[in-house]
Amino acid sequence: MSYFKVIIPNYNSEKYIERCINSILEQTFEDFEIVVVDDMSTDNSVEIIKGIKDKRIHLIENKEKRYNGGSRNVGIDYGESKYTLFIDDDDYFISNTCFQELYDKIQECNPDCVSLDYIYDDGVFHHIPLERNDLPTLVHDNNVACWTKAIKSELMVHFPENTLMEDVAQHIAQVDVLDNCVSLGKTFVVWNRQNPISVSTKPSEKRKSSEWRQLADVYDLELKHDYCIEEKERRIQEYLDLLLSGRHVWEELSR
Question: What is the pLDDT of residue 254?
């Protein structure tokens, strides 16, 4: 069993995937495995991944389209680890001491979840601090991306599949099974907002239909904690207001 498992969903990321993987391989803390799940890429990214020779890299090639949520689920179900981390194929870890700093924090308090700061890169680096040391703060934060959290692997919740907007429903459901969380208090990931083919920047019909699907996924959540139920109700109202007014959830909530 490895200490950290890092799951990377890959799709047509030949320009960025090597940088992403190398930012993991360069870590000074070496007890990790990398699970790259390719979602039927049509570019050269799979060949690039295969060309990086390290026994800690495991490449899984989907036989049917799973999108990011489904690809992450494949990674969740593969192998065993103490904690699970996520990173997108065009993003990267900020330094080679990230895993050591995370490990040291975990050794202090054995948390279910560690909240991770990140940098938003739109041509200028913007540090986004995430001080989330209790579960209500964590679940109500609009920074719901799975790569802003390290989770005990035994507590991992699966993602909605066949949609481009899977993070919110999974975030709420994930927090609902946690007993505690702590903030690392250090920058961990660089979120690349300069990739023109990223699903978060490229409009598509699939993305528009996913807005209604996300509303349904959040509505269907069965939750036990009041703060998660409150967040579910807030999100439902927010999405309804936006969608019924003709606006798009994706554009409004990413501003």
Answer: 47
Whole-number Å distance between alpha carbons of 95 and 128: 16
Quote the pTM value: 0.93
Q: Coil, strand, or helix at residue 82?
A: strand
Phi and psi angles of residue 230, each rounded to the nearest 5 degrees, phi first: -60, -40
3-state SS class at 52: coil
2-253 maps to which CATH number? Answer: 3.90.550.10
Taking the C-alpha atoms of residue 144 and residue 182, their distance in angstroms, rounded to an integer, is: 15
Rounded distance between C-alpha atoms, residue 94 and residue 234, angstroms? 33
Report how far apart, in Å, the C-alpha atoms of 176 and of each of 47, 134, 240 are: 39, 12, 23
Q: Is the dihedral of CA 209, 211, 216, 222 positive or negative?
A: positive
Both structure tokens of 186: 């250090």
Domain ranges for the chain, please list them. 2-253
Whether the CB-CB separation of 159 and 72 falls below 8 Å is answered with: yes
**C-alpha neighbours within 13 Å on the C-beta side of residue 210:** 22
- CA atoms of 207 and 211, how far apart (whole Å): 7
The pLDDT, as a whole number, for residue 49 is: 98
